Amino acid sequence: MLNFEFQNPTKIIFGKDQISKLSSEIPENSKVLMVYGGGSIKKNGVYDQVAEALKEFDVTEFGGVPANPEYAVLLEALEIIKTKDIDFILAVGGGSVIDGVKFLSGAATYEGDEPWDILAKGIRTYEGLPFGTVLTLPATGSEMNSGSVITREETKEKRVMGGPGLFPQFSILDPHVVHSIPKRQIANGLVDSFSHVIEQYMTYPVAAKLQDRIAESVMQTLIEVAPKVMEDPSDYDAASDFMWSCTMALNGLLRVGTPNDWSTHMMAHELTALYGIDHARTLAIIHPSQLRYKLEDKKEKLAQYAERVWGISEGSIEEKAEAGIRKTEEYFHSLEMDTKLSEYTDEYERTSAIVKERFEERNWKGLGEKQNITPDDAKKIIEMSY
Ligand code: NZQ
Ligand code: ZN
Questions:
Q1: What's residue 227's pLDDT?
Q2: Whose CA is closest to atom 28 on ligand 1?
Q3: How much distance in Å is there from the Cα of 282 to the middle of ligand 2?
Q4: Residue whose CA is at the smallest distance from ligand 1 atom 18
Q5: Distance between Cα 120 and ligand 2 center (Å)
Q6: Pocket of ligand 1 contains residue 99 by CB under 6 Å
Q7: Mean pLDDT estimate for the chain
C-alpha cells in the first residue's frame, strides 16, 4: 500500500425529511446565498422544504446555474456575493450546482483580478467562503469532495479546480429527491459513479486489499440497484443505496494508498466542452477504448474485476481482462447509453486532433496512473472511440 494522508471534514446528514435540519447547520445570522439550477427544485418540493428551513435567515436566491456550470453565469452570482456581503453559500442541486458553488467559494476569497486563473493556472483554494449542500442528484460525489469542474462556453473549455478549502461544511442527502429525476439523469449518475470507481481501481495491484474490496462493493451495489432505480426512482431503499454509493465512489476513501488514473475523465471533459454531451456519456464513450489501449498496464486489475464483480472464472488473465471490458460496455448499454462518439455527433472526425493540441498547450506530458498517456496516446484512444 502507498503512503497516504486522509482528511474529509464534510458532515453528512442522510435520510428522510432531513432538509429541515438546514437551520441548525448554517451559522446563526448568516447572510445566505442560495444557489440552484434550472428549476427542478420548484417542481419536486425541494425548494419549499429549503425555504421553510431557511425562513429565519437573510437569504438571497440565485437560480439558473446550467448543467455543466457556466463561468459567465457564475460571475453574476460572484457579483451578488460581493455586493451583498454574503457569508454562507447553500447549493441546492446536482453536481453542476455544487461545483458552481465551489467555484464561488474559491473565487470569493481569491485575491487575483481574473477568477478564471483559478482554473487555467490550477490555483488551489485553501480557504474558501463556507458553504453547504442539499444534494438533488446522486452522481458526482461533489457533495463530499473538494473538486469542481467549470465550463466556459466562450472558449469551449471545461477545467477542474480544487483544494482543501472546498469541502462542503455539510451535505444533506435525502434519497426521496431521487423520485423526480428523469431516467436519462439516473443513468448518468449510475455511470458517472461507476466510472469514478474505475478511475481509482483499474490501475495496477499495490497490496491494498481493503480499498479493492470497498471499490468492488460500490460497483456491485451500483450494478444491483441500477435496474430498480431506472424502473422506479421512488423506490426509497434502492434510491438510498444508489445515493450513498455515488457519494462513496468519490469522497476520497477509495483513492487512499493506491495509484489513480483519471485520464478518462480528462479526455471525456473535452467531449463535453466541444459538443455539450452529458458528462457520464462522455465517460461511456472513452472508457472501453482507454481500457483496451492500456490493457497491458491494467490487465491484473481488470481480470480481478472481471472475476469478483462479474463472476468470470474462465480464461487467461488477458481473456478475463477483455471480458471485464465487454461487461462494462454491456452495463453502459443496459442503461440505454451509447458508447461511440459518432452516435452523439456527426462532426467527430477532428476531435482527436483538437484534444491532442489542447493537452500539448497545457503541457500535459503524461496522464494516467503511470503518467504514460501522452497527447499522442490520447489522440489514438479518442480515435478508437469514434
Ligand atoms: O437544473 P435543474 O433544473 O435542477 O435540473 C437538473 C439538470 O438539468 C436535473 N436534476 C437535478 N436534480 C433533479 C433533477 N431533475 C429532477 N429531479 C431532481 N431531483 O438534472 C440535470 C443534470 O444536473 P447536473 O447537476 O448537471 O448533473 P450531475 O450531478 O451529473 O453533474 C454534472 C457536472 O458535475 C461535474 C461534471 O463534469 C458536470 O459538469 N463533475 C463533478 C465532479 C466533482 N465535483 O467531483 C466529478 C465528476 O466527475 C464530474 O466531472
Ligand atoms: Zn465523473
A1: 98
A2: 95
A3: 9
A4: 181
A5: 19
A6: yes
A7: 97
Half-sphere exposure for 254 (CA within 13 Å, toward CB): 31
Rounded to the nearest 10 degrees, the angle between the axes of helix 236-249 and helix 183-201 is: 40
**Alpha carbons 43 and 181: distance in angstroms, whole number:** 11
- The Cβ of residue 330 has, within 10 Å, a number of other Cβ atoms equal to 12
Q: Choose among 238, 220, 237, 221: nearest CA to 229.
A: 238
Tell me the per-residue pLDDT of 45-61, one tens digit each, with 9 for 90 and over: 999 999 999 999 999 99
Rounded Cα–Cα distance for residues 302 and 123 (Å): 34
pLDDT of residue 160: 97
User: Measured from the CB, is residue 40 less than 6 Å from ligand 1?
Assistant: yes
- What's the number of CA atoms in the CB half-sphere (13 Å) around residue 269? 17
| Cβ(140) – ligand 1 distance below 6 Å | yes
Q: How confident is the model at residue 87 (pLDDT cuts 50, 70, 90)?
A: very high
Pick the closest to residue 145 from 107, 182, 196, 191 (CA basis).
196
> Which listed ligand is nearest to 192 at the C-alpha?
2
The finding on whether 148 has its CB within 6 A of some atom of ligand 1 is yes
88 forms beta bridges with 32
pTM: 0.98
Cβ of residue 139 lying under 6 Å from some atom of ligand 1:
yes
Q: What domains does the chain contain, in order, with CATH numbers?
A: 11-176 (3.40.50.1970), 182-384 (1.20.1090.10)
Give, using CA atoms, the residue closest to atom 45 of ligand 1: 142
